[in-house]
Amino acid sequence: MPYSHHSHSGQFCGHAKGTLEEMVQTAIAKGFHTFSLTEHIPRSIEDFYPEEQSSHTEETLAKLFDDFIVEAMRLRDMYCSKIRLLIGFESEWIRPSTLAIIQDLRERYTFDFFIGSVHHTHTIPIDFDKATYERARAKAGGTDERLFEDYFDSQYEMLQALQPPVVGHFDLIRLMSDAPDTEFQDLNGVWERIYRNLEYISSYGGILELNSSALRKGLAQPYPCLAICEVFIRMGGGFAMSDDSHGVDQIGTNYPRMLAFIHRAGIKRIHYVDVATRGKGKDSRLPTAGFSSISMDDLAKLPFWTKNQ
Predict the structure, then answer these.
(1) 0.85 cut: is pTM over it?
(2) What is the chain's percent helix, strand, coil content, to nearest 5?
(3) Residue limits of the PHP domain (predicted)?
(4) Domain extents for the chain?
(5) CA 126 to chain centre
(6) Distance between CA atoms of 162 and 158, rounded to whole angstroms?
(7) pLDDT tens-place string over residues 58-96
(8) Assigned architecture for domain 88-307
């Protein structure tokens, strides 16, 4: 019964498919222990994705998120005997106004946790398509290396501002690059920034998301890559599993491959947000939950792996 801390539904995300309830039902059918509902936060109109520009205003996109919370709470109550559903969100970090949006959401709602992610550099999406990535690269100075540096600098700003309990797809920037399977170590300026960011995450007890979506998008390793995982392990950092599903067909996709990667990296325990730890910690980032963990030996013995080969 593994875990996913990251999902999106077509009901509340323009580039996903299916309803939120269909996502939950599929997670139950596949034997998930914990499944997190983490739709994207609302954004300013200048940061709309193409599929949103003709279908939403700022007001309707904000209402869509409000509707997500209502539906997520309904599903959490309806299916509580079958699965642990967590309600959170996935952040953006685009421009100064993004912080105000996140602060407003956290004041209005009590979330189990949230994911701190970066999808933009120089306000341009870096994982939408190759042409958009190339626009961001040109603005950064014309090379992947310069864009990588700017991405990890933006990520560091996000980390300092939010201290997210789970850091989403840490090295997403490699997806559309000319070398998507890079491990960054031969890029001194980039590697220095990666190391700085990992040290900061470790300093406040953040968890790195192991995100299997990289595998279904054709990369050889999940996010983050092996070299980054090995450094974070040496820092004493923890990891959580995610499929970053955008439809029922992506729930648990490539989890057996990710399990093999976890063994290869030498990760000994997998962490997960656990509402059973509610009230036991003093972490303001997790007002209703905390982290528990399971050993890799115990995780590998769960019936999920034979059921979902």
Answers:
(1) yes
(2) 45, 15, 40
(3) 5-213
(4) 88-307
(5) 15
(6) 6
(7) 999 999 999 999 999 999 999 999 999 999 999 999 999
(8) Alpha-Beta Barrel (3.20)
